[in-house]
Amino acid sequence: MELRQLQYFVTVAQHGSFTRAAQLLHLTQPGVSSQIRQLERELGHPLLDRSGRTVRLTPAGEAVLPHARAALASAAAARRTAAEFGGLRRGHVRLGMVAGAALTPPSELGTFPGLATTLAAFRQEHPGIDFSLAEDTTAGMLAALREGRLDLAVIGLPTAASGRADDDGWTTLAGLTLHTVLEVPLVAACPEHHPLADVPAGPVPDGTACDADSHGTPGSGTDPLPVAALDGHALVSTPRGTGMRTALERALASAGASAAVGVEAAAPPQLAELAAHSLGVAVLPDPGTVPGLRVRPLAGPVPLVRIALAWPSERPAAPPTAALVSHLRTAYPGPAGPQASGATSTSAAGAVDAATAAPSPMCRSAAAPSSTSRSSGK
Question: How far is residue 277's CA from residue 259's CA, in Å, rounded to a whole number?
Fold first, then answer.
């Protein structure tokens, strides 16, 4: 098996055409076809269905394609690493982030710089390292990390997600390293004339009530709203595959309710604007004061989203990526407090323990100030 055969296979699969693939690879079509047939003979299965006008993947081809992409990405990373150790002292980091992420924490968790400020400081320390930024959902970025299309990502996860086999959160995190930055509570942003804008708080399930001094948010003057009260109301949230939507659905399920999301948007500011136009109750990090909205903290349980850095643990990081990871971990020590430089990063299996090492902000953060609105939970 040769890397060029994998490259030919991936290119044909991506474009569904031997002719187009040959053009892009600057090769002849018979040459591309011959190399892929050699690959198929070695693997013992046909990878491409050539019977139609468009070339399609066979079931075996669909299974092999992610591994082929990962192998090509690893080979490219090896070349970059060798060049950097050879004295080039240059590199490129592909960084993904959830829409609107600025990594601004609730005030009780401390203060640290926004993402743009942190990247600017990194660039000053490493002027030869470039980086590209891409926005996507958490699910999309997890796939990109596995396939080698991203080196590092800022993701939003339901707080229970760890990747362990017994985890009832997301189980797609195995093979990734996580470094928790902060935990963000979600609130209900109701149109000012919505029935839930002034509904009494009501009872909260045992074991989930917040402390008495945590009731109410600055500027809202309302008690926490039980999550179960959202049942039956039209909601505004991020799409499926985002940490914010998963946290909402998990909290509703825990309260015996279900989500009725009628409108979806990519980022918290869009959710708040849609809710202000009476398209539903937005569940999002506290947006602060928004004309036309009444913000209600949620309880029973409080939906929490964990913002974390994620990068592959099954392949070594290239020096530029390792340098940026170190810089970001120093700038964003996480809920557990400052971490020693060079300390072992939190693995996916232990991320929950690291996230809860400090006193839980679950109740205290239910009334978090509007600074949380600048952190996306996607």
Answer: 20
